């Protein structure tokens, strides 16, 4: 995480503001900002947000916006950072405009929920941070039954950390082979799950095959989560006819 932060910090420039919307940023972010001479604007220090049951409040360096529609808990860090950028530019919209945007906001394949007797969640989370955001969303919206996770990952991703983050939410795992040479072999992902103490793991030769198995094994009240990569979610959406 520190190494990735240093790579991302390559955009920093002297006297230019840089916004960090990570509530628990790697130390490298502030270190690189000091080294580059950039003005770091940090979530939790220079701008803040708080949530209620139906709305949320954003507070910037000079302005605030209250009564904002909740577009999804997992997006709020990023949205807060975007509002901080708009405030710096002098383009911060009013509450009515922001709520109109939030009310119409739907990101295909990002915390996308397909309702039904068995609820399907499609999320392209492909790093530890985005997986933790998915876990927060799943935790805030618990299912009454089991949770089957269909997952495939690319080789440059922190597989062990991503799987560890998902463990508390998942009842059964279906690891799928992805149609790309960049993928981690499904058997290697399964082996990592076994190392972490998981026993209910299936390995399938494709995303479509994994989806078919998940549908066959699920019952009313269960949830199927498809995640790990665009290469996982894309074929699943096609299989579901979305």
Would you kindly provide a written description of the structure presented here, covering whatever features stand out?
It is a single chain. By secondary structure, this protein is of the alpha/beta class. It is built from nine helices and eleven strands. The chain has a six-stranded mixed β-sheet with strand order 6-7-11-8-9-10, sandwiched between helices. Strands 3-4-5 form a three-stranded antiparallel β-sheet.
Question: Would you summarize the structure shown here?
Answer:
The chain has helices at 2-8, 27-36, 76-89, 95-103, 128-140, 159-166, 186-195, 207-217, 230-240; strands at residues 17-20, 39-42, 48-51, 55-59, 64-69, 112-114, 119-123, 147-151, 172-176, 201-204, 223-227.
Quick tags:
Protein-Tyrosine Phosphatase, Chain A; 2 domains; 9 helices; 242 residues; UDP-N-acetylmuramoyl-L-alanine:D-glutamate ligase; alpha/beta; three-stranded antiparallel sheet
Q: What is the end-to-end distance? A: 34 Å
How many structurally independent domains?
Answer: 2
Q: In what order do the strands lie side by side in the largest sheet?
A: 6-7-11-8-9-10
Largest sheet: 6 strands, mixed
The Rg value, from CA coordinates, equals: 20 Å
* CATH homologous superfamily designation of the largest domain: Mur ligase, C-terminal domain
CATH class of the largest domain: Alpha Beta
> Would you tell me the structural class of the helices and strands?
alpha/beta
The CATH architecture category of the largest domain equals Alpha-Beta Complex
In percent terms, what proportion of residues is strand?
15-25%
**The CATH topology of the largest domain:** Protein-Tyrosine Phosphatase, Chain A
Q: Mean pLDDT score, rounded?
A: 93
Q: What series of H and E elements makes up the topology?
A: HEHEEEEHHEEHEHEHEHEH
Task: Catalogue the unreliable spans.
Answer: none
Number of strands: 11
Helix coverage percent of residues?
Answer: 25-40%
> What is the overall shape?
globular
């Amino acid at each position: 995480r520190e190494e990735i932060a240093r790579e991302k910090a390559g955009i920093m420039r002297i006297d230019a503001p840089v916004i960090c919307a990570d509530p628990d940023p790697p130390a490298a972010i502030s270190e690189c900002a000091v080294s580059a001479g950039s003005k770091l604007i940090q979530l939790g220090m220079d701008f803040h947000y708080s949530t209620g049951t139906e709305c949320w409040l954003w507070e910037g360096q000079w302005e605030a916006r209250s009564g904002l529609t909740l577009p999804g808990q997992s997006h709020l860090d990023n949205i807060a950072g975007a509002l901080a950028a708009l405030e710096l530019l002098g383009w911060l919209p009013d509450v009515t405009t922001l709520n109109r945007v939030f009310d119409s906001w739907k990101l295909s394949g990002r915390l996308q929920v397909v309702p039904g007797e068995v609820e399907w969640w499609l999320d392209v989370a492909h790093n530890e941070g985005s997986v933790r955001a998915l876990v927060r969303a799943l935790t805030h919206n618990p299912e009454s039954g089991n949770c089957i996770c269909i997952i495939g990952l690319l080789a440059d991703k922190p597989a062990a950390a991503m799987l560890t983050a998902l463990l508390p939410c998942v009842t059964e795992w279906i690891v799928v082979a992805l149609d790309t040479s960049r993928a981690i072999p499904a058997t290697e992902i399964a082996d990592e799950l076994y190392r972490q103490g998981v026993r209910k793991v299936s390995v399938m030769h494709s995303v479509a095959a994994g989806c078919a198995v998940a549908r066959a094994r699920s019952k009313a009240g269960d949830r199927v989560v498809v995640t790990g990569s665009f290469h996982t979610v894309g074929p699943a959406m096609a299989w579901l006819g979305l």
